[in-house]
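The instructor's notes for this session suggest beginning with a concrete chain rather than abstract definitions. Hand out the sequence below and ask the class to guess, before any prediction is shown, which regions might be ordered.
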Amino acid sequence: MHLFSLTRQAHKLDLSKDIEGYIFLFTSEFYLFDQKEKNHLLEYPFFFSIDQNNPPLFLSSEDDRKFIEMLFVQGCKEMLSNDVANEAVERAILNLLLLKCAHLYPHKTKAKYGRGQILVKNFLLHIEENFHKNLKVADYADMLAITPHHLTQIVKQYTGKTSTELLQEKLIVEIKKLLIHSQLSISEIVDLMHFSDQSYLTKFFKKHTSQTPFEYRRNIHESAYSTKE
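After discussion, reveal the predicted structure:
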């Protein structure tokens, strides 16, 4: 499988032999370069859904599959040409790919996004991009040019959770990932996630998981070891 970044970087993933395909990575800045509507990317039904429960697109038509595969192949060729002038072509291929997938996406999962939904999706996107900075709700409200109270009201309306709850959930998930999949010490995780000190991170993590970070990592590793036996 080949993975191509439309920020002009190429990578190769070595996966099992029964997996074939292509992955395009691109930044919102790349896609929105010549787009008049800056929220366009958030309106696609398969990107960053509020409920995080959108299904993948299944291509039942062989013609559709071949067409989309052709777009991926052509996009890869443009990337490998190393011609900066080809960015416009790459952007056009990406736009056509997204438009085609949006057209084929199951109608029952499509939705017209109003200002409230777009605001919440923007908030979630900002969380994804900035969670490691351990920002406050007020910081995100500033990014969105609204008050913290208004942000919390809109987020609660569309997700059933407060802005603070979404932030805390994201932090816990990312801390768990670091504890499981990295060799970083607890103090290194504190620095990486911009907590004030190890005691604060430990209290925060235990409040939401009933375990300290050390206990969580130990239990996960012991569980994995016993499963292998």
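Then share the key points. The CA atoms of residues 56 and 162 lie 27 Å apart. The longest helix spans residues 62-80.
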